[in-house]
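Reopening this ticket.

The earlier resolution said the output was attached, but the attachment link was broken on my side. Pasting everything inline this time so it's all in one place.
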Amino acid sequence: MHRLYDRHLGTDWSQHSGEARIWEGIENVDDGELWETHVSLKARLIEFVRRQAIEQAARRGEAPETLQKLGRILSPDALTIGFARRFATYKRADLILADIERLAHMVSNPKRPVQFVFAGKAHPRDEPGKRVLQQVANLMRDSKFSDSFVFVEDYDIDVGRHLVQGVDVWLNNPRRPLEASGTSGQKVVLNGGLNLSVLDGWWAEAYDGLNGFAIGTGRTHTNMDVHDSRDGEDLYRVLKDELIPLFYQRDRDGLPRGWIKRMKRTIRTLGWRFSADRMVMDYTLKCYIPAAGGTSSEIRPPC
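Inline output:
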């Protein structure tokens, strides 16, 4: 993606990444070039996940036939949803597992399959969080999910980097209003991925209806079980009625034009707003300099 931005936004785009005008150029990028770039990153993710899965199984002493099968998990053509973060219970990594039969039907659909890549860690003393992690990881051993549901162990920066670069969709469904920010979703943006998130943290102000997908309406319920049930139902609704149909709607060139349009919109509308460059400049110009009594950040030599 960096090379694509160099070609179309100018080689100095990173020096002006906090300026909205820089990102307007993404609309002029050829749909095929943007999609091909994303597909290549997705292929790199799948190869990485396969290697990790084989290494994990080998450490456990799994049979050779199991290792061979793991070398074929995930399809580069299937809609790929990623989830990687701490396995604190309020982040609800298991929300998608609320209706296991509906999930099984979704991943096994021969015409519009969906696959999931999970990663993350629970705090060593967080027993409920560890149980959620185990529940997610154990789906790899279920024959209904073994080809389309992967948990990558030993979550670190490298694992996170591959996921945010290669997934089609970034899933974020914490229990509102407990999300602090959601920086992983911000990283996905510049890689061309779309966010599917509850309206909490950054997504509450970032989502405009066309630059990704939202779970729920931003409302909460005092009963936690009711709250989770409603969000779970809406998660499945958005996947079934909005997200999956848009991803698989292709033209005669095999391009998902509607999906690519959202990719461009998310990059254009969010690339400049949610960046460390823009944040530091805002702090400097709107806070630090006025607080210091200055009118400029220019450094002048002493008299």
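Reporter confirms the inline version is readable. The beta strands are 79-84, 114-119, 149-152, 169-172, 194-198, 213-215. The chain has a mean pLDDT of 94.
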